[in-house]
Specification:
By secondary structure, the protein is an all-alpha fold. The chain is built from 48 helices and 2 strands. The chain has a two-stranded antiparallel sheet with strand order 1-2. β1 (309-310) and β2 (318-319) form a beta hairpin. The longest helix has 23 residues, at 320-342.
Length: 978
């Protein structure tokens, strides 16, 4: 909003222009109201006309239909009193907006039908008096007939059969009306044929294609075009989300989610659009939106999830069932009001048709992040559903406790389900512990539960929490008279404590020392604890070996290899003597990983092969997925992605038999993604990345999950799946912990940066630029990472230049240069400065040349710095690219002699191309541009042709015939003009 009222008409026009750049909504509307007040102070009426037009637009697209006709009445009065004030452009806008008023009046059930018809008569009379064609009038008459629910046959023919005029709705809007006419008649195929120019992006406007896309989704599903429906849902939803004037379109996207098996995504989108419950002032738009909401909520409730939380009207919390009842009541009332005004039952009938539709598909994978209603429940299970039935949990409490301990000793994955059930029972107020000597006292059970919780914390790298929980468990085991279990808990404390990152020290060295100390303490603990059972002793040996293995992993020191093998062999011999299958497998897996860490990959593979043979013959079966995963990773290191893919895929298949978090399914998906990328299967890799991320998210490893999702988003963008990328990132950025600022700010910034790049790739320059500007502002405070700020500011500068805001682009470029001085980004900065210079010269011609050359001078200094630092560009040489850009910039500005001289310099720097020269394309482009400048603009065709013919001959002799095409075409043009 303007901080002070404009004092001159120039200031007013600038303020109006600035407001026009704002998105529709309360800020823009309030500013427009203030600017009307400011315009009223001036004696001349033209500024007031402009201000009123801006205000009416803000009301219209801000979904405030009650106010739009009032503003138009003022405009019409001004026109009647001072018609000369309205030039051709203002007059055109005035008559265009008769249609806006018609639309606004239809949206208000309190306006009598007779008043609507009277307004149409006013419109027709005004058009006839002004000598304007009546096609727009008949279009509004048809739309009123549709709204009321009358027979539209005659009205449609009167409109569709007439020739269009300058005041007719745009082609895209009229295409939508014709398609809806066919859709209402039940002809999906004909409607989609009519829609094709809009759906294909050939016709568009302020509201299109978002409006048409929302209506076309269900017809596409009904005609078997599910993939296209998915594509258009992603693109169309982005065009209407959180937009009060397109709340009906949002409602249709919610309906589409409900009828395509994507109820969970529907609830997510509903939460994103919660503001629409209160921001939409149009009763007709409210009705359209609420009906779509009700379709979704009805479907969720039918599926048995009525108790799920749902985003609804502000001021209270809602469940799906509660919100559905509220929405149904309000929407029924709105439909009844419109029907009472119109004297028909059309709106009630249309609501019933939408609510009675059956799902069109069981499921359609709409986004890279496919989730079910179970996943969005507050108590969603950690692991996804698998093909294996859930583990049987004994009903008897003593049996359950004993079963949990037995499975835990074996390392069996089903122990997790038993502990989860026991945790729920023990937490209940009415819990009564069994008086059974085999079960032991309550203190022991509480210790068991703490140990399980501690193990989970350790798996998430929450080592301080794990150490504290194990320590508490040890005390309870002592109280319960279980010294062996207490010793195991204290050994786990030692290991977890050693893994806590040390602050203010050389972390690898400090961690290695801590692990050495922990191992020595475990050995003493082992020696000082009598009466250990074989399984307890095996677990203690496993912890000792693990400490040394972690030390080797930290240091990669050769001197630390033999101690790991010694401990692993000790564990293997003990476990073999006592026939403890899980620990035998663990020891051999430890040997295999030790070989791998020491660099002996063939031995690692041999050890893994032997282990797999044993597991297949003797078990335990749940060790197979992790072991296959290890062999798959070894094959990746050995550059055999095909073999790796086979092992990893088999591991993932077997992992489906067990809870995902117990068999490493997350890691298997991630490694499979890498194998797929090496095999040239990026789409399959993308699926595995997203599965890995979602498993991490469900398991509570949120940072790891977001990092993996970030990689998936970047890959989808690299694959050109722009809408998939944006939809994925929108979903992630809406997660509660992200929105609350609980996630690492740099990771969130990376997600936003990828999204901004995707928006740019999707040609949404306005949204992309806004996000880049925000990121550049935030990253300016990253004193520990000026290089990232240089990158973001440089990209921001380019987008601002693409938007024609060259002053702001220069400011952003200066920020990038300042950050670059602290942490050089030679190639990125040079590329960005050259691109801004090109855009400015191209858009502004000679007027932009001084600023463009200043930018190129900065790029020249960067090239000098890079050369002095010995930096080699990954792409084009900075010097040759700079010389070429000097040529292009001068050519755009009409300085052709300077352009030719710069291009000659670029060619000299490049030198003559060779047969295997990867710069041949760059050289050919320099020759082409030099030929065009010399032959066309300097009108010296003879030397230009000599240059071109020589280049064509050389390239042909070298076998680079593809690069000659543009040169041959230019030479032919020059000869024709001679």
């Amino acid at each position: 909003m303007p901080t002070t009222a404009p004092q001159t008409t120039d200031e007013l026009y600038q303020a109006l222009q600035d407001n026009d750049r704002r998105p529709y909504g309360r800020t823009r509307t309030v500013t427009a109201e203030e600017l009307v007040e400011a315009a009223e102070q001036f004696a001349e009426p033209v500024p007031l006309v402009h201000a009123l037009l801006e205000l009416q637009e803000a009301y219209t697209y801000g979904s405030e239909p009650r106010k739009s006709p009032v503003v138009f009445a003022r405009l019409l009065t001004l026109f009647d009193e001072q018609p000369d004030v309205f030039d051709d452009r203002l007059r055109h806008m005035l008559f265009w907006r008769f249609k806006w008023v018609s639309h606004a009046l239809r949206q208000l059930p309190e306006i009598p039908l007779a008043s609507l018809r009277q307004w149409l008569t006013e419109m027709r009379d005004r058009y006839e008096k002004a000598g304007l064609g009546l096609h727009p009038y008949y279009g509004q008459a048809y739309q009123l007939a549709v709204h009321v629910g009358e027979d539209t046959t005659h009205a449609y023919e009167l409109w569709a059969g007439r020739a269009r005029t300058r005041l007719s709705d745009c082609e895209a809007c009229e295409i939508c009306e014709r398609a809806l006419h066919h859709l209402t008649a039940g002809d999906d195929a004909r409607a989609l044929r009519a829609w094709e120019p809009v759906l294909a992006g050939k016709e568009s406007c302020q509201e299109e294609p978002a409006r048409s896309l929302s209506y076309a989704l269900l017809p596409l599903l009904r005609t078997g075009s599910a993939d296209r429906a998915r594509e258009l849902h992603l693109a169309g939803y982005r065009g209407c989300r959180r937009n009060p004037s397109m709340s009906g379109e949002v409602g249709r996207h919610l309906e589409f989610c409900a009828l395509s098996g994507n109820e969970a995504r529907g609830l997510e989108l509903l939460a994103e659009n919660r503001s629409l419950f209160d921001e939409v002032d149009s009763p007709l738009d409210q009705l359209d939106f609420l009906t779509g909401v009700e379709v979704l909520l009805q479907r969720v409730e039918v599926l048995g999830h009525g108790d799920l939380p749902a985003a609804g009207y502000a001021g209270r919390t809602w469940t799906v069932a509660g919100l559905r009842a509220e929405v149904r009541s309000r929407a029924d009332d709105l439909a009844a009001r419109f029907d009472a005004r119109n004297g028909t039952t059309a709106h009630t009938d249309r609501r019933r048709v939408r609510l009675d539709r059956a799902p069109l598909l069981d499921t359609l994978e709409l986004t890279l992040r496919t989730r079910s209603l179970d996943d969005v429940a507050p108590a969603a299970p950690v692991a996804p559903a698998t093909t294996r039935p859930a583990a049987a949990v004994p009903d008897s409490l003593p049996e359950l406790i004993l079963r949990a301990r037995t499975l835990d000793e074996q390392g069996h994955p089903d122990a997790a389900a038993c502990w989860a059930r026991l945790r729920t029972l023990v937490a209940a107020r009415d819990y009564s512990h069994p008086d059974d000597p085999a079960v032991g006292p309550l203190a022991r059970l509480r210790a068991d539960l703490l140990a399980d919780e501690a193990n989970k914390a350790g798996e998430k790298d929450e080592f301080a929490e794990a150490a504290a929980l194990h320590d508490e468990a040890a005390g309870l085991y002592d109280d319960a008279g279980a010294p062996g279990d207490a010793a195991l808990a204290r050994a786990a404390v030692l290991l977890a404590t050693a893994e806590i990152p040390a602050e203010g020290t050389d972390e690898p060295e400090a961690k290695a020392a801590a692990l050495t100390t922990a191992h020595a303490s475990m050995v003493r603990l082992h020696e000082e604890t009598p009466g250990l059972t074989p399984r307890q002793e095996a677990r203690l040996l496993r912890l000792r070996a693990t400490a040394l293995a972690l030390r080797l992993q930290t240091t990669r020191s050769e001197e630390h290899v033999a101690p790991v093998f010694a401990e692993a062999d000790l564990l293997s011999a003990f476990a073999t003597r006592h026939d403890i299958a899980g620990q035998i497998s663990g020891a051999r897996l430890l040997r295999a990983t030790t070989y791998a860490l020491s660099g002996d990959l063939p031995a690692a593979v041999t050890e893994t092969d032997a282990l797999l043979d044993r597991l297949k013959a003797q078990g335990p079966a749940w060790h197979l997925p992790r072991t296959l995963g290890l062999r798959g990773r070894l094959q990746l290191v050995l550059q055999d992605p095909e073999a790796a893919y086979g092992d990893l895929a088999e591991g993932l298949r077997l992992a489906a038999d067990w809870p995902a978090e117990t068999v490493g399914a997350t890691r298997l998906h991630a490694d499979l993604a890498e194998a797929c990328m090496r095999l040239g299967r990026p789409d399959e890799a993308l699926r595995h990345l997203t599965r890995s991320a979602e498993l991490d998210l469900r398991g509570g490893n949120r940072t790891d999950a977001y990092c993996t999702y970030s990689n998936a988003a970047q890959l989808s963008l690299d694959l050109g799946r722009v809408e998939d990328c944006i939809a994925l990132l929108d979903s992630l950025l809406a997660e509660p912990d992200v929105a609350a600022g609980e996630l690492d700010d740099r990771l969130v910034a990376q997600l936003r940066l990828t999204r901004a790049r995707a928006l740019h790739a999707g040609e949404d320059l306005k949204a992309a630029t806004a996000e880049f500007v925000a990121l550049a502002s935030e990253s300016a405070g990253w004193d520990d990472d000026p290089g990232s700020h240089a990158m973001i500011a440089a990209e921001t500068a380019v987008l601002l230049a693409e938007s024609g805001e060259f002053g702001r682009a220069r400011e952003a470029a200066d920020q990038a240069l300042a950050a670059h001085a602290r942490d050089p980004r030679y190639e990125l900065l040079s590329n960005s400065l050259r691109e801004i210079a090109r855009l400015q010269a191209q858009r502004q011609g000679p007027d932009g040349l001084p600023d463009a050359l200043a930018l190129l001078a900065d790029a020249g200094r960067i090239a000098d710095e890079a050369r002095a630092a010995g930096y080699e560009a990954h792409g084009r040489s900075l010097d040759t690219a700079l010389a070429y850009e000097h040529g292009r910039v001068n050519a755009y500005a009409g300085a052709y002699e300077d352009a030719l001289a710069a291009l000659e310099k670029a060619l000299a720097l490049l030198g003559e191309p060779g047969r295997e020269d990867d710069r041949v394309g760059e050289w050919a482009e320099c020759v082409r541009l030099a030929g065009a400048v010399e032959g066309l603009y300097l009108e010296r065709p003879a030397p230009a042709l000599t240059r071109l013919d020589a280049a064509i001959t050389r390239l042909t002799a070298l076998g680079h015939t593809g690069e000659t095409e543009s040169l041959v075409s230019l030479a032919g043009r020059l000869r024709d003009e001679e």
